[in-house]
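W.,

You were right to be curious about this one. When I first looked at the sequence I had no strong expectations either way, so I just let the prediction run and decided to look at it fresh. Below is the sequence, 959 residues in total, followed by the output.
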Amino acid sequence: MARPDYYDAPECDTHQEKGAPKFCKKSEPGEGTERSCAYDGARVVLMPVTDVIHLVHGPIACAGNSWDNRGARSSGSQLYRRGFTMEMLENDVVFGGEKKLYRAILDLAERYPEARAIFVYATCVTAMTGDDIEAVCKAAQEFINKDFCSGQGGDEEATQAYAEVRRGASDGANAGMDEKPPLRVPVPVIPVNTPGFIGDKNIGNRLAGEILFKRVIGTAEPPILGEYPINLIGEYNIAGDLWGMQPLFDRLGIQILSCFSGDAKFEELRYAHRAKLNVIICSKSLTNLAKKMQKNYGMPYLEESFYGMTDTAKALRDIARELDDAVGGLEKRIMQDRVERLLEEEEAKCRERISPYRARLEGKRAVLFTGGVKTWSMVNALRELGVEILAAGTQNSTLEDFYRMKSLMHKDARIIEDTSTAGLLGVMREKMPDLIVAGGKTKFLALKTKTPFLDINHGRSHPYAGYEGMVTFAKQLDLTVNNPIWPVLNRPAPWEKEGGIAAEAEQAASHAEAFLAEDISASRVAVSTKKATVNPQKNSPALGATLAYLGIDSMLGLLHGAQGCSTFIRLQLSRHFKESIPLNCTAMSEDTAIFGGWENLKKGLKRVIEKFHPAVVGVMTSGLTETMGDDVRSAIVHFRKENPDHDAVPVVWASTPDYCGSLQEGYAAAVEGILCSLAEGGETIPGQVNLIPGAHLTPADVEELKELVESFGLVPLTVPDISNAVDGHIDAEVSPLATGGIPVSEIPKAGRSLATIYVGDSLAKAAVALRERFGIPAYGFTSVTGLSEVDRLMATLSEISGRPVPEKHLRWRSRLMDAMVDSHYQFGTKKVALALEADHLKALSRFLDGMGCEITAALSATRTRGLDSLPSGNVFVGDLEDLETAGKGADLLVANSNGRQAAAKLGIKAHLRAGLPVFDRLGAHQKVWVGYRGTLNLVFEVANLFQANANEAQKLAHN
């Protein structure tokens, strides 16, 4: 891959400043998951450009874990919210992805003619394999826009690249591609060479600015140029912040010519060079862009903030002064006079509106921790509301910001240098704040300590910029701090008071062989042949492995890869479970990616063992390290030899490259690794059974299964056990290690159980491995949701234990049957489309079919055994864009939260959130859909969705 010259820009120097606090310094192996990578930084800057295709050239992890997860709003096109990715697979990594990328660009340009440009993002894997996205983008752009080139073709390099790639694309696999896509305007295809391993998020921000400067700005002229045009830089319109500032500029007669890049159209960015002033909102993301525009276009710039009345007034006054100077000289105070009149009016109204909130917030004490410049911006806003800052910190700032924050706060206020989970917990315990104002990754950590929390970063729902935003900010703070739940949560529990607890009281056995023997070479399941995946439903295998590791108490998950991968995994799991997720990584850099990550892995293992003292370390690989060919097994062996004092800490390894499988495959690989590494043989323990729950089960599902097994007098050894790990109990210990799962000391007993019960076909190999090694019978269940499926589980438990089915289960069975009778009117003849991981898809599609629904489409994330038997004539492997076609006519959509786009496009009101992630509904991890009781819950939930949808349809028809 050609190295762009802007990699060597002085603004991208990663030299660490001497004396910088810990948060200013580079991540070390074994750390780094609090920060993100260069790819993510570029994505933050460019993704808010609304009418552009953002195509990620890499395996599933980079896009699959991160698409549509920021709160940047658009007043027009929603194209930027679609998740375009190449979803590189193993063969693409081996043979190269240039041809596939070229075809995908042409295909997407044809299918999305509304796109005004295509940004193509390099990732760690494709950078390592050497894919030349520069040449591919040039060739693709020339072909797409050949009618606009006046027959000239372009420069010699582009023409040569075009010819080379076209020869490859015409080998028969791309028949018909020579026909010109029906486009109306030229479409630039812009490479974004910012793979994650080259640096942190700030580096990616800056490189994105370089790309905009070199390839976009100055390529068009504005249709209308006002007297006072400005650009906003580093404003991403999170939750509509830009729209809170726009009315102020409109009243002053100031034209926002271009915004980088909130609510931005590509065309608007092209004529940004005609503004008279650049106003930087986020000072550390795109300052390099403002400096280059100053040098090349003579355009001055200011660094301002619009959070709080003080900073908003200062920003408007500074902008007015610069504009007066640019237009008519400082002696003409036209704009400055306008600003003073506006401030006099707006400040008085704002103070009056926030006064009730200030009265209740006065004297409250806060810890402030955000992702960047907002930390020192918010200090003033909080002080204006009477809130005292006890401590403040950030993950992405520099030494300059360190001193700036310090100067704004009380002399006794603390700067948070250690941004790890342990460091933040230490600050909370020391300072005992009344509230925490921070970003979403800190949210669940704060709530674990029963501390009120306000999200200030990209995941928030409310705009806080300008005077209107200040009122909203005050209101949200008041609702957070003075919510009546906090006194209730802090009262003693009933059992902590005297007298408080007075009122409280054969087919399965052959399942694995049948499943593993299935030949899928002639499967009827179709696999999508699209050139690019759009809105992926997959998650990365490493995310699945992380989930499995969370179910082992005191286990430390260590991802061998670039730090952005682990950041995305933590964010995805935090959004779903509403928990702080522990995960470390080996923080692969550009050097280690080139020369090998063997030593990085050994250093990472040594660091995490010495720093965190885990009971066991779970290593998982990424697409980057698998592509490099790192021999993880040998590295672990050598680590053992070099560090004999760490022999007491087991190290488990799972191969989880991004280009092989999805979440459930990574989870199954980790479970198999745990059992094969730690289980030991010996005399059978009476009554003990192994319980291996699938990746699709919630913590509450796992707890229900354990109780079902126990009710037969059996002792379940659950591996992994997430029922006490990510189940949401507020008194859970927050730690850099997994907490609450099965103790490591119990896992060796798995080789001495009298039976193994697994739920989910993907775990058949793990169960068979125990049987082959220790002779333990394996009983498998595709599903334990639905009357027949639970009947089979009950019969199997009865056989293993020699006991009859307990009376309480018979009662729940009767209740379930009654519920099925009561609800069958809602289910009958309803059409359902599902898009889920394979194990989950099998369970829910069979349940809905058994209730009388028609399964019109069943989309699996991956191609696995067992899909042929699904009760649908339309079973295939695809993405959520496919759902937008396959789901036509459906009454119910079953998918994770990312399926909401398809539901909206299809006009489907009933959307049952299932799978991972579920982030737009509360309580997903507490749902029980297994056993008789869980099936009853599901029956009622789906019936109520159908019923509500029917009622709404009736109202519309009546009106």
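Here's what jumped out at me. The two ends are 61 Å apart (CA to CA). And, maybe more interesting for your project: Confidence is low (pLDDT under 50) at residues 1-20, 148-163, 165-183, 500-505.

Coffee later to discuss?

I.
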